[in-house]
Design brief:
The structure is a homodimer. Chain A is an alpha/beta fold. The first copy, chain A, has a single domain, classed as Nicotinate-nucleotide-dimethylbenzimidazole phosphoribosyltransferase (CobT), large domain (Rossmann fold, 3-Layer(aba) Sandwich), CATH 3.40.50.10210. Chain A has helices at residues 29-39, 43-51, 92-111, 126-138, 142-145, 154-170, 178-185, 188-202, 212-224, 243-250, 266-284, 288-291; strands at 6-13, 54-61, 72-74, 116-122, 207-208, 232-233. In chain A, helix 4 (126-138) runs antiparallel to helix 7 (178-185). Chain A starts with 5 loop residues before the first strand and ends in a 5-residue tail after the last helix. Chain A binds chain B through residues 24-26, 28-29, 32-33, 35-36, 39-43, 45-47, 49-51, 151, 255-258, 269-270, 273-274, 276-277, 279-281, 283-286, 290-296, and chain B through 24-26, 28-29, 32-33, 35-36, 39-43, 45-47, 49-51, 151, 255-258, 269-270, 273-274, 276-277, 279-281, 283-286, 290-296.
Chain lengths: 296, 296
């Protein structure tokens, strides 16, 4: 058991539901933040540098042109999802492409020797998507699962709840199974993170979730394949209220509770350090006998 | 603001109150664990290695002969404290020597360039001492502040409560001020950790407490000099019940709550990683403007 080669994979994608005015920030912030990740200026960059954690940034569905970069994994499935208040967020084919990309990135990470994986996301509008998933998966109302995401005000919150309510009505017939939920109200980054959980579990590499949106992907993965849960660590308890529903589905107590609500894999990065310490204790400690300590 | 040179100082000492049968382990375990620290076999060694944290082990009052070692800071004030059920745990002079040793070790650490300090302890019997401090400082009963320490059973717990009750009676007149408490029912490592808080604060270096016993020292330091609290971080919430009383005196929410109860600075070591990440975010992140991110 080792945890010397941690890697966090960060999936970025845009969301058609932004057209409903559900976010405090304009959609172009997704691409701007991807550029910020590539320049090393975001919180996750600081956490990863501080923690000696490798970071991979994946464009799985950003709706803007991004310059080619050795540091950006270009796996774009579409220029964002469709507006799920009007039609399914993605096609069957897009869903499979995004899931596969996530699986492949986990397998590649394992083959590269990574022994502890984490994942995070960036996508303006994606708390609306994760809230819709929470409502569909747990049967809770939009009111119960919606929080202010990246700083939504009251009017914005009302639009979020309304968008989710309309989407649950529109797609009711398709929301009976996890793949239907993912396709109709999910996001490309959420599908990729779901696949990432499969890939990590398939290679028996422990994988650390992040906050609300990342954990929506983990919850879907465990619904689809319960054995994934043995490889999952819940990193932190997000301040976003819907997170608790996913943690309870996963039956996991997160390692940290620091009132963070940023996403980007920031919770995963902190939890990686705790897990590394635990692994070091399991593998590097003397026993009472070998240390010559008197037992009771 | 930097946190690149973390150091944890581990203070070991013995306790005369062990004669009352208050611990599940024999007193010689203190020295045996010091040897284990020096060989790198304890949990704190694993955590420190995993986290890139420098560790200093200080003999401030072990009751057994220890071999000279470059890795052991020899600052022994006495061969353990006296049994505080019969007399004050230490003399005025011993108290001052232990406090001074702690102050000096913090000053030396700051001069050596350490920019983030933590402290921990090893001392069979020292949860009895910390529980007595909690009772004396907060006015709570021995019943409320006593926990099972390193695995005390019911009979052992009863002896712990009884020892504390008798000590509170015997020293009632001297327990009106923090120095009196420290001298009568404290420990040499607790006095040294109290001094360590002073030294760190005097040099304006942030200092991370550990569990129940370490936090008893921090609480006494803040009682003696309230300005110390601005430099203190509470690392974790120990599973030892008395810890909550000290955290509440300090008015601090700990960073972690992992049901740990080991001491040795293990909680401090984990918290150091969280604090380093926070400092990295404060000092290494782009602003919205510098990253070209659209504001609302």
């Amino acid at each position: 058991m080792t945890a010397n080669r941690p890697r966090i994979v960060l999936f970025a994608a845009d969301h058609g539901v932004c057209a409903e005015g559900v976010s405090a920030y304009p959609q172009e912030v997704t691409a701007q933040m991807v550029m910020n990740f590539l320049r090393g200026g975001a919180a996750i960059n600081a956490f990863a540098r501080s923690g000696g954690i490798e970071l991979k940034v994946v464009d799985i569905g950003v709706a803007a042109s991004l310059p080619a970069s050795d540091d950006l994994v270009a796996r774009r499935v579409a220029r964002g999802t469709r507006n799920f208040c009007q039609e399914p967020a993605m096609t069957e084919e897009q869903l499979m492409c995004a899931l596969n990309a996530g699986i492949e990135l986990a397998l590649e990470s394992a083959i590269a020797g990574c022994d502890l994986l984490g994942f995070g996301e960036m996508g303006i509008g994606n708390t609306t998507s994760a809230s819709a998933i929470a409502a569909a998966l747990t049967g809770n109302t939009p009111e119960a699962v919606v929080g202010c995401g990246a700083g939504a005000d009251e009017a914005c919150l009302a639009r979020k709840r309304s968008a989710i309510r309309r989407a649950l009505d529109l797609h009711a017939d398709s929301l009976q199974d996890p793949l239907g939920i993912l396709r109709c109200v999910g996001g490309l980054e959420i599908a990729a993170m779901c696949g990432f959980c499969f890939g990590a579990a398939a290679r028996r590499v422990p994988v650390v979730t992040d906050g609300f949106i990342a954990t929506s992907a983990a919850a879907l993965a465990v619904h689809l394949s319960p054995s994934v849960s043995g490889y999952l660590f819940a990193s932190h308890r997000s301040a976003e209220p819907g997170h608790a529903f996913f943690l309870s589905l996963l039956d996991q107590d997160p390692l940290l509770d620091l009132a963070m609500r940023l996403g980007e894999g920031t919770g995963a990065a902190l939890a990686v350090k705790v897990i590394q310490a635990a692994v070091a204790a399991f593998t590097g400690m003397a026993t009472f006998a070998s240390a010559g300590v008197s037992n009771r």
